[in-house]
Specification:
The protein contains nine helices and eleven strands. The protein is α/β, with parallel strands linked by helices. It has one domain: Alkaline Phosphatase, subunit A, CATH 3.40.720.10. The strands form three sheets. It has a seven-stranded mixed sheet with strand order 2-11-8-1-5-3-4. Strands 6-7 form a two-stranded antiparallel ribbon. The chain has a two-stranded antiparallel sheet with strand order 9-10. β6 and β7 form a beta hairpin. α6 runs parallel beside α8.
Length: about 270
């Protein structure tokens, strides 16, 4: 019997935010791993994930091609499909395509508009939708069903850990899209200006936001218990992040066009349903 699969991506969740969270259900899947994303913002990172490549361990003294081969072979254990290899994924290099070819129903639910159904990332999904609410992991869990013997692949992109971290958006500065060291503004005459991140988010506010991201992980963890209860025993979970986030380190905030370790450092836990 092949395994059902959940790939759950905590958008923008950096490693130490996850590490500091008080979790119970996510920790039951396996040991927390420090991994590194292939990209610093949502779209390219998710394209790599849909290729079947999870965030990497940055190993030394190996060729990149060997790392990729090992990652593709790891799907054998996750899914219980013995013949999987790098060649299985070629030429499409698509995890949902491989799963469809092996009889899976493929279902995607995303929170970020840059992953909407009109983008290429929705290819090879039987059912793919952008959620109406930015913070609706609850709605995703409610929709999970296993009505028959057909194996399921569920891909969830969660907005709860993304700015503004489940805080009241009306009380937070509006920061859209990929953000970084400065925020663009315009004066009444229309002249472009910039404002330093420290002026928008003082140090104490940065600390509060970092703490809040950990609280968002705890919120997700509480719902994971309900999700586990809805899944058959032969269900494998991969929970990770697409990229990290900066909370004032080296005068950066957020993610995007930033080369900083904390933007690439992400958590990963995986294992069979407890």
């Amino acid at each position: 019997m092949v395994n059902n699969l959940f790939l759950i991506v905590l958008d923008s969740c950096r490693f130490d935010s996850f590490e500091r969270a008080n979790i119970r259900h996510l920790g039951a899947l396996g040991s927390l791993q420090r991994r590194y994303s292939y990209a610093s913002w949502t779209s390219p990172s998710h394209y790599v994930l849909m290729m079947g490549l999870l965030p990497h361990t940055s190993p030394q003294h190996v060729f990149a091609s060997e790392v990729y081969k090992q990652e593709y072979r790891a799907w054998v254990q996750r899914l219980g499909i013995a013949e999987l290899s790098f060649k299985t994924f070629v030429p499409q290099l698509s995890l949902p395509k491989v799963l469809k070819d092996h009889g899976y129903k493929t279902i995607g639910r995303v929170s970020m508009p840059v992953l909407n159904p009109y983008t290429a990332i929705s290819q090879h999904f039987d059912d793919y939708r952008l959620m109406d609410n930015h913070n609706d992991f609850r709605g995703m869990v409610d929709e999970v069903t296993f009505p028959d013997a057909q194996p399921r692949f569920y891909f969830f992109n969660l907005g709860e850990t993304h700015y503004p971290y489940m805080l009241d958006p009306n009380s937070m500065p509006r920061v859209s899209g990929v953000h970084g060291t400065v925020k663009s503004l315009r004066d009444p005459e229309g002249a472009a200006q910039t404002q330093a991140v420290a002026d928008v988010f003082p140090a104490a506010e940065m600390q509060r936001l970092h703490h809040q991201q950990s609280r968002c992980v705890e919120y997700v963890d509480a719902l994971m218990g309900e999700l586990f209860d809805k899944c058959p025993a032969n269900t494998y979970f991969v929970v990770t992040a697409d990229h990290g986030e900066l909370f004032g380190e080296d005068d950066y905030f957020g993610h995007g066009p930033i080369m900083h370790q904390k933007v690439f450092e992400v958590p990963l836990v995986e294992g069979m349903r407890p």
